[in-house]
Write a structure and sequence with these properties.
The chain has about 250 residues and is mainly alpha-helical. About 50% of the residues lie in helices and about 5% in strands. It contains twelve helices and three strands. It has helices at about 1-20, 35-45, 50-60, 65-75, 105-110, 115-125, 130-135, 145-165, 185-195, 200-205, 215-220, 235-245; strands at about 80-85, 90-95, 100. A three-stranded antiparallel β-sheet has the order 1-2-3, with helices on one face. The longest helix is centred in the first third of the chain and has 21 residues, at about 1-20. The radius of gyration is 27 Å and the shape is elongated. The two termini are about 40 Å apart. The model has no long low-confidence stretch (mean pLDDT about 85).
């Protein structure tokens, strides 16, 4: 989901920077977070965590411990990655903080395998819902699909769909981690705002115009103050209105 989150954030920031350029605002001092390194660690082929996990699942003697050792060897020089063999964990340094992952049970969870006989048994059920619960086993497949592979395939399909559209986003911020009312955790909210790129967006807005009214709406709202109508296209009329109100330091 990090790739989807980055896609949303970059789309939003690109829209803001385009607006800033159109308004002649210099936003060069605003730095944007680049999560490419973390994304590469997780899903870059053929040496990302997801591919290495699938690879270890295909080995008869593969274990959670051998998987952890392989991660440590591959990413030993990556500043965003560290391994704690003593506690069977690895850490990935995300934008806001480090996140520790316990590898116990990683391989079994990724395989998520069921006996082929059980799957075939469900296909003989008279109940259509039961029959549709599990897909028939693919006897022509070289190796079984894993949870990680299925997830990445579905995520890529979603990304392909999003890239073909002009999506709109609803940004949700959780006030606390307990899902309870009347609790506002400032630290938790600030972390979410940072990771969503909102802080960078605010910095750009502070250098320009935080409120942007369409010229038509601006003219309709404030033209009545002068009891005078102006001629020309909407941009010319809005500019004349600003000058008439002695607001020349602001421009349209």
């Amino acid at each position: 989901m990090k790739r989807l989150k980055v896609r949303i954030m970059m789309k939003f920031l690109l829209w803001e920077t385009a607006e800033a350029l159109e308004e002649g605002i210099d936003y060069s001092q605003v730095t944007f977070v680049d999560n490419k390194n973390v994304l590469d660690i997780i899903e870059k082929r053929p040496m990302g965590i997801m591919d290495l996990l699938d690879e270890e699942c295909s080995f008869p003697k593969g274990t959670d411990e051998t998987f952890l050792a392989k991660l440590g060897k591959v990413f030993n020089k990556n500043s965003s990655f560290s391994v704690s063999k003593l506690h069977a964990k690895f850490e990935v340094k995300h934008y806001t903080d480090k996140v520790a992952y316990d590898v116990s049970g990683f391989l079994d969870k990724n395989k998520d395998s069921l006996k082929e006989e059980f799957i075939l048994l469900t296909q003989t059920s008279k109940d259509p819902i039961i029959r549709d619960l599990l897909k028939p086993p693919n006897t022509h497949r070289n190796k079984p699909s894993t949870v990680g592979t299925s997830f990445l395939t579905e995520l890529q399909a979603l990304m392909d769909l999003i890239n073909k559209t002009n999506p709109h986003w609803v940004r949700c911020i959780k006030p606390n981690h307990y899902s309870k009312p009347t609790i506002f955790n400032e630290s938790a909210v600030l972390t979410q705002l940072k990771s969503a790129g909102v802080i960078e967006t605010v910095k750009i807005r502070k250098q320009g115009y935080p409120v942007r009214l369409p010229l038509e709406k601006f003219y309709d709202l404030y033209q009545s103050l002068l009891r005078k109508k102006f001629s020309g296209n909407i941009k010319a009329k809005a500019k004349s209105l600003v000058q008439a109100l002695n607001l020349d330091k602001f421009y349209c």
